[in-house]
Amino acid sequence: MDVLAPVLKLTPLKWLMLAGGLILAAVGWWSNLTAPRELPKELAGILLPTPRELAPFALTDHNGAPVDLARLQGGWHFFFFGYTHCPDVCPLSLGMLAEVFSQLRKDPKGSKDVHGWFVGVDTKRDTPEQLQKYLPFFDAEFLGVTGAPAAIQGFAKQLGAFYSIDPDPKNPDQPLITHSSALFMIDPQGRFAGILQPNIHSPEDMAKHFLRIRRHYGETS
Q1: Dihedral through CA 78, CA 129, CA 70, CA 102, nearest 10?
Q2: C-alpha to C-alpha distance for 67 and 43, rounded to whole angstroms
Q3: Contacts 24+ apart (CB under 8 A), 177-183
Q4: Helix ranges, the chain (H)
Q5: 16-51 pLDDT, tens per residue?
Q6: What is the pTM of this model?
Q7: Vertex 166: Cα angle to 160 and 169 (nearest 5)
Q8: Strands 191-196 and 183-186: what pairing?
Q9: Are 123 and 152 in contact (CB under 8 A)?
């Protein structure tokens, strides 16, 4: 009781000052846990200097479950934008992402709470059923994403993911589709964190970069 006596005698103003100081200390402690440190040179061009907050969006995975900001909390997510009838870029990039995941699974810390997503931009043909058949060829845990064309476009725009769909006069049922080959990373706070380029890095290098990213976020030793 004697130890608490000086505290109990504080005036209301001093109580407010003490409470404010405790709140500021708690905010600073939490910020140190959640905010990445200064960007290492080896991650320049991969991680954004500051993770970018995402606006709400509403999509659906190939099992019919919602894909939104709440779904992205608490884990790392790799998003790739393409289409299931792609003859070259998509199979190559998804195959490389599957190899990245294979490398990460050798280290339990590296593969924890990491998810791979394929966003089907060809909404007429990239149905949930088609995505369910397509993705297991690469990795059984990959999830396909579908939704209204405007919703997919809005999500892609937030990440800077490029794709275009144009009619083919010679074959109306098969549009001409071009898209980027980048892998877009979302961090455990649901923020756009950075980009990996399969056409630049090998799967081994991408896995090493991602482990560096996790260490940068203070997640692994």
Answers
A1: -30
A2: 28
A3: 177/83, 177/86, 177/121, 177/122, 179/81, 179/82, 179/83, 179/86, 179/89, 179/121, 180/81, 181/89, 181/92, 181/93, 182/80, 183/78, 183/79, 183/80, 183/93, 183/97
A4: 5-8, 12-34, 89-104, 108-111, 128-134, 149-159, 203-216
A5: 444 444 333 333 334 444 445 677 788 888 999 999
A6: 0.80
A7: 170
A8: antiparallel
A9: yes
What is the distance between the alpha carbons of residues 8 and 181, in angstroms, rounded to a whole number? 63
CA pair distance 57, 72, nearest whole angstrom: 11
User: Among 93, 95, 72, which residue's Cα sits nearest to residue 180?
Assistant: 93
Q: Of 24 and 96, which is predicted with more confidence?
A: 96
Q: Can you tell me which residue has the tokens 């190559």?
A: 92
Q: How many CB atoms lie within 10 A of CB 56?
A: 8
Amino acid identity at 220: T
For 40, which DSSP code? P
DSSP helix/strand/coil, 141? coil
Phi, psi of 80 (to 5 degrees): -125, 135
